[in-house]
Amino acid sequence: MQLEHCLSPSIMLSKKFLNVSSSYPHSGGSELVLHDHPIISTTDNLERSSPLKKITRGMTNQSDTDNFPDSKDSPGDVQRSKLSPVLDGVSELRHSFDGSAADRYLLSQSSQPQSAATAPSAMFPYPSQHGPAHPAFSIGSPSRYMAHHPVITNGAYNSLLSNSSPQGYPAAGYPYPQQYGHSYQGAPFYQFSSTQPGLVPGKAQVYLCNRPLWLKFHRHQTEMIITKQGRRMFPFLSFNISGLDPTAHYNIFVDVILADPNHWRFQGGKWVPCGKADTNVQGKSFQLTRFLDTYLGNRVYMHPDSPNTGAHWMRQEISFGKLKLTNNKGASNNNGQMVVLQSLHKYQPRLHVVEVNEDGTEDTSQPGRVQTFTFPETQFIAVTAYQNTDITQLKIDHNPFAKGFRDNYDTIYTGCDMDRLTPSPNDSPRSQIVPGARYAMAGSFLQDQFVSNYAKARFHPGAGAGPGPGTDRSVPHTYLGEEAEGLAAERSPLPPGAAEDAKPKDLSDSSWIETPSSIKSIDSSDSGIYEQAKRRRISPADTPVSESSSPLKSEVLAQRDCEKTCAKDIGGYYGFYSHS
DNA sequence: AATCTCGCACGATCAGAAGCTTAA
DNA sequence: TTAAGCTTCTGATCGTGCGAGATT
């Protein structure tokens, strides 16, 4: 077995670690021997030995003290120090692979998480999209560690390589019977109450807050710049979580894994796979390489607020705006703030929610304390310079820090800012106010607030209490422009009475009114001037923008249409995945 | 040729200083 | 008059894409 050849004895866990089942429907008879799905996971030994636990402890970054909220929810400095001791992540992790450690935490099979049939929280991939489906998995399970995504099977990647969309995106087949939909317009997986079928009590649900924006980029194959000193992601990862135990403590972090085994190249206006990905672990399977890269490398970013209570995490958005991407392998000392990637490789960020004890130790006696969430639309290719000009333009259009590259910004956007709805990379609420917002119409403002607070109230029942711990990252999730696009993709009926419930809350919630992030004039959403400004690289005089030929234009139009119905469709605001 | 690095200009953010208003 | 609170201004720092040059 390939894996056995490449694994060092210390890493070479018992066979329990390597699930040799071939029962997984999409394994396609490949050589893949590792699986991630709970139904296949027969042991949790690695979870029990918990490399994650060891990793995460040493990962609280330097901004911890700055960002840590001073509230009852906060464990406080003393506890923090206990919760995040400085560890040698690599050595400890390696140690954690020791079989003895694994045995020590071996669970009986009966204690394993739900089967696939009872796992409604399994992520629903997008068919016909850019990449393979990535069912969420728990990194807490050894087998799940090792084979994060079933589509990594040869079959899936063959599909990935052979079936390319016109944009050059692979249209991989989807191994899961649960289909997320057949396009971006596919219905999301909604769970509005715990009484609804399919919701697993006690399991977290995660919503990708700025999903519409991600979708915009994803459409063109998102690219992320990596630099030696580190470059922030844009769009950045921002989530809302519900379903946590408000009193329990959690670590929340993001890791970035290889999304596929290919090296990518931008040719003929599209991304095409070009040979095998560079791997540091020669001779090892892709799955193992990715696993090692992820957990032995520097691809994990702990949220500065970690650890904290479920109430804290559910109170407002969990933003990873300060996560930086670098290609500098020597950046490992950067307090966990940098994620080291390789250029021209495709990556998939994942969110991990790990329940920890109040004293910061991980309770290994209970299963299901590690939950992982994957959003396919957040896949990206790491680059040192942008290849696709559409991506460049989207970045310029949406990233406040790139305003200097927008043409005629003052004339175009002031007062009719349709698309200046992107949150600042920073967490400051202040940064959420976009120039156009200052002149926005009250109606739009209220509508926006309505949407925001509906979502807020809907998903965070306790969120109306005003600024609390962690207000430094109390980012209003009101990217209505992008949201509207997402709304079209995620139609969902407004629960009866939601509007009545939400509106008074809007007006009373000072923290939200204070920091409107996306107020705009809907009426001005489709100005030709705006579109020309977006097309910075194309001279408006020389190259009139054709509505039919401009995907960006289509997006704007789609947004406008969506906005008309957003009040009804606010339920579709978030991308939603849940898995444990 | 493809990719990467570095310096640049520009805008955003942040914190501190300065100025103004108000109440004791 | 003085202190407290608030707003505005200012400069340092950071983040951004661009483009020339270096590297592979």
Task: Give a summary of the structure in a few sentences.
With 580 residues, the chain is α+β, with helices and mostly antiparallel strands.
List keywords for this structure.
580 residues, alpha+beta, Immunoglobulin-like, eight-stranded mixed β-sheet, 15 strands, disordered C terminus
Low-confidence stretches: 1-201, 409-578
Radius of gyration: 23 Å
Structural class: alpha+beta
Specify the CATH class of the domain at 205-358 and 368-401.
Mainly Beta
Instruction: Write down the overall geometry.
Output: globular
Beginning-to-end CA distance, first to last residue: 29 Å
Strand content: 5-15%
How many E-type strands? 15
Helical residue percent band: 25-40%
User: In this structure, how is the largest beta sheet organized?
Assistant: 8 strands, mixed
Looking at CATH, which topology of the domain at 205-358 and 368-401 would you report? Immunoglobulin-like
The CATH architecture of the domain at 205-358 and 368-401 can be given as: Sandwich
pLDDT average, as an integer?
51
User: CATH-wise, what's the superfamily of the domain at 205-358 and 368-401?
Assistant: Transcription factor, T-box
Query: With helices defined by DSSP (H or I, 4 residues minimum), what is the helix count?
Result: 20
Keywords: DNA-binding, Nucleus, Transcription, Transcription regulation
Organism: Fukomys damarensis (Damaraland mole rat)
GO biological process, one term: cell fate specification
Biased composition (Low complexity): 108-122, 517-527
